[in-house]
Amino acid sequence: MRGKLQKIGFIGIGIIAGILISLNFSANAGKESASAALPVEELRSFADVFNAIKQGYVEPVDDKTLINHAISGMLSNLDPHSAYLDADSFKELQVSTQGEFGGLGLEVGMEDGFVKVVSPIEDTPAWRAGIKAGDLIVKLDEAPVKGMTLSEAVKKMRGKPKTDITLTILRKGENKPIVATLTREVIKVQSIKSKLIEPGFGYVRITQFQEETTSDLVKALDKLYKDKENKGEPLRGLMLDLRNDPGGLLNSAIGVSAAFLPADSLVVSTDGRTDDAKRKYTASADDYLRGRRGDPLKQLPGGVRDVPIIVLINGGSASASEIVAGALQDHKRALILGTQSFGKGSVQTVLPLSANTAIKLTTARYFTPSGRSIQAKGITPDVIVEATPNGGAHEWLREADLERHLVNDKDQSSDKEDGRHQTKKAKPAKGNLDEENAYKPIEFASKDDYQMSQALNLLKAWQIMQKK
Asked: Per the record, which residues fall in region Disordered (predicted)?
């Protein structure tokens, strides 16, 4: 029996070694070629465990399932954003960047075996039900989340439109679990929303950075300039709202930045271990079109690159949102108003393994034009304004709160001990809301939007100062 296990074990080592070589991975920090010495002892241990499961687990498990679980475990234990994408997850990733997918409308991660809400997507079942960033989902219908992978939990939350699912939620400050029944629907995320707040002052909200975000931004700006209430006058001020925007496509973030910056201005740089990960991205068509035909920024209304801008951010502004905010802040093109952003300063590369599976791997950190890293730190607003006159509406989950988050290698105050990442405790939100309002999300760009009203006041004051 032992001889059979050893024989299968060595076959397993050969298979694993072949996979590593085919993927061009090395055991020695990536500097040597894939033919460098492989960790034979560790691979032997892997093969022993693999075969112990095959021979002795209480129920039969096929090879494909075991290998997929092994790959998933390797990636999920690196950082919060690396992941194995099975056929369903890979398809969902591709569809979501196009702005339409089925489900509840939640950006989620995993913590202590539970699904943790990063941000509800605006105008979705989750948003309307009052699900908040930081909520822990512990049960899906009657099934405990503990023991599920993130992919399995997400798959369970997805489903046919008009079908219900009951979430059991733990929320800080609540004495007992919150039980909410949500009805699934097709989630169509409208990337750009815009309106003329009053003559001369426009408002553009980006909910997510998708494939068509840059061209949709141009259309929204053109509509604002042609709005009848504006009487054909140029805009005197613009609010760019990135609150609760979880990010999206890098090239779209570059395109949005390029709409307001001088041509060829540095937008963001990335740095990693491979040559491909060391790049500088500028406000140029080559970097934001990504091979697509037709440059939408050629249709920008005149004056857009000179109009005073205030960018609104909060703890739900992440990744691509922070790239845009950081670029406009560093180039002194806009004032940033709101609260500290999420702090996701890493780049994920999708590497296909087959026609329908892939891995999402963190390959680099990104830096603002001045060289700042916002990883686990976020963008600090020029003008700090809480969500309400009485303080923050709730406590935000941030990158620094996630297990195994990358440290900020340029921030001396980053928590790091023996190479391990320490989870920082989020600061309590200021102010208290009564129970009725605590479960009600603020409607952005409404009369109740305190941060937007303060941004409008600041733009008007800006106009007065310019005249003086």
From this structure: 408-438
Q: Which pTM does this prediction carry?
A: 0.76
| Residues with a known catalytic role | 319, 330, 344
In this structure, the answer to whether residues 461 and 314 fall within a common structural domain is yes
pLDDT tens digits, one per residue of 321-367: 999 999 999 999 999 999 999 999 999 999 998 888 999 999 999 99
Provide DSSP, 435-460. Answer: HHHHTS---TTSTT-HHHHHHHHHHH
Domain range holding 39? 2-61
Q: Is residue 91 part of a domain?
A: no
| CA–CA dist 345, 320 (Å, integer) | 9
The secondary structure element, H or E, covering residue 143 is strand 143-144
CATH, residue 320:
3.90.226.10
Residues 144 and 229 in one domain: no
The answer to whether 378 touches 342, Cβ cutoff 8 Å, is yes
Q: How far is CA 70 from the centre of its chain?
A: 25
d(CA 159, CA 88): 12
- Asked if the structure places residue 431 within a domain, the reply is no
Please say whether the beta carbons of 289 and 298 come within 8 A: no
CA dihedral sign, ordered 88, 136, 451, 347: negative
Show the tokens assigned to 348: 């994920």
Based on the fold, state whether residues 219 and 301 are members of the same structural domain: yes
Question: How many structural domains are present in the chain?
Answer: 3
**E-state strands within 214-333:** 237-241, 266-272, 279-282, 309-313
